[in-house]
Specification:
Chain lengths: 250, 354, 176
């Protein structure tokens, strides 16, 4: 019988703990698939964040390190500097990467550390129960912005891809989404490219994945996917923000 | 025997670390330990596999240390008091993930930004955990440039052996002074680290470096296991030096620069017929409790000499179990007690009960 | 025998270097020693001092608070440390830069116009080494033999010319 669908080998058999309708499962799968396709599982080390994906170390079958909140890029820097032949990735949420870990993010990018960062932006702190994130949209109601994000006191959302692409350091920056099949296909390509870049020694690659959080957005999974199209993507336009090799190749 | 060379304490740590097989250094500039980072910046690029990286912050530096330590290689960072405060989060994670690493604190006066002159006021932070949670570091306190080198090598060995972070707790004087030093010429033996993340090579189940245990039973078990190991460290690795303690009636306890000053005072006291002696803890965690307890059986007073408002004195008092008075002779904020000040304290103690 | 030496002056006068040189010479003579600088921002243009202890015994405290030998290269240093010198100690004064006389009568005082002598030998930055030459002559804290070997330790091989002029400065002090 022909196998038409199977679980990537780079995922363990541990059942995922994510909420129904959460897109972390899709993104885990895309990462594992990229690792499988490139045949790098045996030399890959992943860094898990603090946040919903904190237990990613149980889900990926490669070696894993759990980092402190926001410090994954620094831990990854240590790993890569110690083992330059290994493939190092971090998997981080918006609070982790764009708030408490902003310094580590920016500096690993400007150093062009040859690592791969998967940045999951769902505009909210999920693990702690739905607080305002650095990427929560203006007016977005959360536990800590109960009247909607007021930009006059809470400031504006941070667009990480745009911000990092102003740096000379990074090799590749792209924003994708996982709310429909077309977008998932593009996300798959982008994530694979981000790993391929590292294999080829090209340097820092960050893929921002616009994602959903039905539980903390207070929506059905379906509505949450629509909300990505209606609200998130207009604020966080998809596309390639930096691709140094392509530019040099022109 | 190796040729003796003159080196600053900070440089001696750096060279000793390299000779101990530490090829990864991460730091952030701060006085008075800058020579250490500068030495590493100069040497590491010339060594195969050597890495020097000036991190964006102390926080990033200690997390880079966490990364390298996860791969099983020897790694260190160094800083001074305010910077070491910033590292506490990472140190707690390193302890919680049972990783070996070396943290050097060349202490300066505090709290806050404090000053840049020598101090020992990070004693509590170093010996009582420092960051959150139940854990200890092995804390070594050099009192000469030679010990800055020797204890660096020892710190790496002990960290590896017990899978826990070690701290070299020095001070600005130790970092800045030069003395003749003899450096080891042979590389140490490295132990196997099957727990390290190096890539599975598809030959084993994945290794996980982690300090998260959401089930309290499991977390408790980890804590109990760790403290069993700490008991072994206390039993096997407590180090101190005694000077003129055999017949001492007044016992001075001091480490680092304070011990150097106190030794002068003890010599002077002996000249004047006062039976003074010195216990110099070399490890302050584990603390030489037994040596203090023994002193409490034959001395009539114990004097803690510290460059702080009195921190080690609490461990001394606990060890002495109220058998004799324990008094403080101190300076703070970057000031150093003079031999005269310590001698006066000894004299007062000797005369007090006559 | 233990000699505690304090060298003090302005930052930039080579106070730390002079101390380092003495320390290396002591090392070559198999003495016990310590060298401790004042450190921090005060070094830049402010006052600088360093403690050097040379001994046959292991050195206790590396901080010199009661010097046997005081070398002063500016007036504030003489004002600050004159009274700290032990009775019977020795004070070396750069008399080009310090006009006043030492008040103490229970110490030996040596006035050396070091800055002027340094200018005379066209080594205006080496008054420090002229002072050291004189200190070695009058205290014998380290022997003068093979003095150039100690210079090898503090002046890099690439700067042979510097070594020569340092040697000349030492000699000028020693024979002053």
């Amino acid at each position: 019988m022909a196998i038409v669908f199977e679980k990537p080998k780079s995922l363990t058999d541990a059942p995922l703990h994510y909420c129904p309708g959460c897109t972390h499962g899709i993104i885990h799968r895309l990462v594992a698939q990229a690792i499988d396709e490139l045949g790098i599982e045996g030399r890959t080390i992943g860094v898990a964040p603090v946040g919903c994906a904190v237990m990613a170390y149980n889900y990926f079958s490669c070696d894993m390190v759990e980092a402190a909140h926001g410090r994954a890029p620094a831990v990854a820097t240590g790993l890569k500097r110690s083992l330059p032949e290994n493939i190092i990735f971090t998997y981080q949420g918006d609070g982790d990467l764009a708030s408490i870990g902003m310094a580590e993010t920016v500096h690993s990018a400007t150093r062009n550390e040859n690592i791969t960062i998967i940045f999951v932006n769902n505009a909210i702190y999920g693990m702690t129960g739905g607080q305002m994130a650095p990427t929560s949209l203006p007016g977005q109601v959360t536990q800590t912005s109960p009247y909607g994000r007021d930009v006059t006191t809470a400031g504006f959302p941070i667009r990480i891809c745009e911000l990092l692409s102003t740096l000379d350091g990074p090799e590749y920056i792209e924003r994708v989404a996982v709310n429909n099949v077309k977008n998932i296909k593009q996300a798959q390509k982008a994530i694979k490219k981000a790993f391929e870049n590292q294999v080829n020694g090209k340097g820092f690659s960050l893929i921002e994945v616009v994602s959903s959080c039905p539980t903390n957005w207070g929506m059905t999974p379906d509505d949450a996917l629509r909300w990505i199209d209606e609200k998130m993507i207009p604020y966080y336009p998809l596309g390639v923000y930096k691709d140094r090799s392509a530019k040099e190749g022109e | 025997m190796a040729e003796k060379v003159l080196m600053k304490g900070n440089e001696a740590i750096a060279e000793a670390a390299i000779r101990a097989g530490c090829l990864h250094y991460f730091g952030y500039p701060i006085t008075p330990q800058t020579e250490l980072a500068a030495y590493m910046a100069k040497r590491m690029p010339k060594i195969e596999g050597g890495v020097f990286l000036q991190a964006e912050s102390e926080i990033a530096a200690i997390n880079m240390v966490y990364g390298v330590a996860s791969t099983g290689k020897r790694v260190m960072t160094s800083s001074s008091s305010p910077g070491v405060s910033l590292k506490q989060e990472g140190i707690s994670y390193i302890a919680g993930a049972d990783l070996p690493a070396l943290i050097v604190n060349v202490q300066r006066g505090g709290p806050g930004l404090g000053g840049i002159q020598p101090s020992q006021s990070d004693y509590f932070q170093a010996t009582k955990g420092g960051g959150h949670g139940d854990y200890h570091l092995i804390v070594l306190t050099p009192a000469s440039v030679q010990e800055m080198a020797d204890l660096t090598g020892l710190a790496f060995d002990l960290a590896d052996k017990y899978r826990m972070p070690a701290m070299l707790l020095a001070d600005g004087t130790m970092g800045q002074m030069m003395e003749p030093v003899e450096l080891p010429e042979t590389a140490p033996e490295m132990i196997e680290k099957p727990w390290a993340v190096t890539g599975t090579q598809m030959k084993r189940k994945h290794n996980i470096i982690n300090s998260l245990y959401l089930v309290p039973d499991e977390l408790e078990k980890m804590n109990f296991e760790r403290y069993e190991r700490y008991k072994q460290v206390e039993a096997n690795e407590t180090r101190y030096e005694e000077y003129m303690m055999d017949d001492a009636e007044i016992c001075v306890v001091a480490f680092g620069i304070a011990a150097r000053v106190s030794r002068n005072a003890v010599v002077e006291a002996r000249k004047q017929g006062i039976k003074a002696g010195l216990i110099r803890p070399i490890t302050i965690w584990p603390f030489p409790k037994d040596a203090i307890a023994k002193a409490a059986t034959h001395c009539k007073e114990i004097i803690s000499v510290e460059l702080s408002m009195g921190q080690m004195i609490e461990d001394i008092a606990l060890s002495a179990e109220c058998k004799v008075p324990v008094t403080l002779c101190n300076r703070a904020g970057g000031m150093i007690p003079s031999p005269d000040q310590v001698f006066d304290a000894i004299k007062k103690a000797a005369g007090g009960n006559e | 025998m233990t000699t505690e030496i304090l060298i003090a002056g302005f930052g930039g006068q080579g106070v730390l270097f002079a101390g380092k040189f003495l320390a290396y010479k002591a090392l070559l003579e198999n003495k016990q020693l310590s060298w401790l600088p004042s450190y921090g921002p005060e070094m830049r243009g402010g006052t600088a001092n360093c403690s050097v202890i040379i001994s046959d015994e292991p050195v206790g405290s590396p901080i010199v608070s009661k010097p046997d030998v005081l070398i002063v290269m500016n007036l504030p240093s003489l004002d600050k440390y004159e009274d700290a010198v032990v009775p019977g100690g020795k004070i070396f004064v750069d008399s080009t830069l310090i006009e006043r006389k030492v008040n103490r009568t229970d110490v030996d005082v040596y006035y050396i116009p070091a800055t002027k002598l340094a200018n005379d030998i066209e080594a205006p930055t080496l008054a420090n080494m002229i002072m050291i030459g004189k200190v070695i002559k009058e205290t014998g804290v380290v022997p003068y033999d093979n003095i150039d070997k100690a210079l090898d330790k503090v002046v890099s091989a690439r700067k042979a010319a510097l070594k020569e002029i340092n040697f000349k400065a030492l000699d000028t002090g020693y024979n002053n």
